[in-house]
Amino acid sequence: MNPANAMARILVVDDDPDLLELIAMRLTSAGYAVALAASGSAALAIFRAERPRAVITDLRMDGMDGHALFEHLHAEAPSVPVIILTAHGTIPDAVAATQRGVFSFLTKPFDGRELLARVADAIALSPPIAAERGNAAWRKDIISTDAVMDELLRAAHRLANEDSPLLLTGPRGSGKELLARAIHQSSGRARQGWQVLRCGSAADDSEDEAQFAAALTKSRAGTLFIDDIEQLAPALQARLLPLVSETGLLFSAPGHAIRIIAATTQSLEPAIRAGRFRADLYYNLKRNTLALPSLAERREDIPLLVAHFSARHTQNTAAAAHGFSPAALALLCAAPWPGNVRQLRNIVEQALSLAVVPQIPATLVKRLLLEDNAREMTALDDARKAFEYDYLAQLLKATSGNVAQAARIAQRNRTEFYKLLARHDLDPATFKPGPK
């Protein structure tokens, strides 16, 4: 057994206590840690609490059977391999299950050596993330015990050594650049170049092109992280396309191609419909996509993040406060966090800097949240403009650029409708079908 897999936790599910005990003995003697469940519902509870590296389950059980258990597990954590045990009469069912994503199946009575071989193969494809966090130096700055983040990090770890591009999506402040850097650190490119290109930050097109060229040169054989890629200039989109296409990757020696990791806070499809973003570039980028959750979707991580940011801040400053009162922490855990992890860090650091007592009171946190959320929330005019733009773009697409028809649907006269299009820099001609 590979020492790296020693004590990997396996969840075994069977309503036959004798078989459950037999499998547990074999796995324990091979060095695995084993969790046992006598039903599908019990297995789900154990899985959510312990996040095992692999699951072995009987197919036919009373109540929730192996099929239903797999569907639940696969929906929550598709990267965790599931091995199904089946009797001779249910082999067709097991084969059908493998087509839906089950890792493997074993027919009873099974050979003990074959069981261990299948488990070893499953473990090799299921890298330890949460349970063995101390050994995961690559993701040490990503503070989380959340199940959604655990699944995301497993997927990121598996994709780290690929040459193909990766698209990270998620709200602003959710940690896309942090994840991209962790993926770089986890890969064979860790000793090569790491460069960041922030789209839309240049003063003009010539500076934009110069930054793009410099980033490509410096990231040779390493990773180029492109932030806010929806703002990348059209000319640079054309230059980027060969680097992310299948052909471009085929002509790069393995391990020497520049790895492109792009990030966006919004769906790129409206920009494609409006002609601002190349569809071919988008479809090449999205072959591998990871979606980061908002902080509101991983609230159980808030106390951990507060402790992390507090410790880091107090190490570098002479702050009077060293912690948050229970009421203050409760406010932080319940806040909406439109600015996500970045906003939480800012609030924690502000509170520690402003407090004059050892424990930060809820009154200070409440005031800071009210002030900061007012800044983070999108202005009503901005929200209205964004909705109006998407509505007009979809309307032009549906009518193939026919302004008269689109104006009728929008219940506006043509003159007013043209003014709306001009306000959003939308050209109806870009929505008309091409030559036959």
**Average pLDDT metric:** 83
Number of domains: 4
Lateral arrangement of strands in the main beta sheet: 2-1-3-4-5
- Summarize the biggest pleated sheet: 5 strands, parallel
Q: From the 3D structure, determine the CATH topology of the largest domain.
A: Rossmann fold
> Multimeric state of these chains?
single chain
**If classified by CATH, what would the architecture of the largest domain be?**
3-Layer(aba) Sandwich
What is the structural class?
alpha/beta
CATH homologous superfamily of the largest domain - what is it? P-loop containing nucleotide triphosphate hydrolases
Count of beta strands: 12
Number of helices: 19
Strand content: 5-15%
CATH class category label of the largest domain:
Alpha Beta
Helix content: 40-55%
Contiguous runs where pLDDT drops below 50 for at least 5 residues: 1-5, 130-135
Task: Describe the structure using short key phrases.
19 helices, globular, Helicase, Ruva Protein, domain 3, 436 residues, alpha/beta, single chain, five-stranded parallel beta sheet, Rossmann fold, 4 domains, disordered N terminus
